[in-house]
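Question: does this match?
>
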Amino acid sequence: MTLRIQKSKHKEPWTIEELSAGLEKFFSDNGHYPTAPEVDRYQYLPSARSIERRFGGMIQLRQTLKLGGQIDFRSGQHSADRAHLISERGHSTEKIVYDFLVERFGKEFVHREYFFVDDKRTRADFFVYDKNGGFCVDVFYPGSKRNLQGCLNSKLDKYASEYMRQYPVIFLQMNKEITQGILDILVKNKRKILGNGQHLMAWESFTKFCHGRKRLSLGK
């Protein structure tokens, strides 16, 4: 089995034999064949994009090599397991944020699923009432730096309307491996910039922001 390193200096196209060897190595290491994001992170395989250009994509390559197991990871049990994981992770991360906000501002002043209009779609995960006029929090968990930008672009599209920007909006990403420094670099280099009052924060920056806001008191 001849393995080729992804970042090899020579630029000859990968052969089908080298790809087969890389895929079998991945299977030996992980117990399953890789998805496209896993291909990009694996040193013994080229990028998923280059496989798309030369072989028609991962599904076609798996079929060509007659690999066993599931071929299309976008459907079936793999997709169901992934959706379940995302759902569970979403609930747990939102609970962390909710518990913190309630402790900091009081349960009466933390509104979950705040709808801007009556269409039941345009909503923030949280709206917090405080003496500064209130702010919105939109929580998300990018699986990696790779899909962070896509998540952020989706948030910016969602909050593009003026009525969705009448309050400060915190895009709160909850992946601890993605630091505020990484977020700041992303924002600095983005072509689609954040609007006034929109902020991309990691957890530590978010808690600091909240402690800088003045909380309301009942009856005042």
User: Anything to note?
Assistant: The CA atoms of residues 118 and 163 lie 13 Å apart.
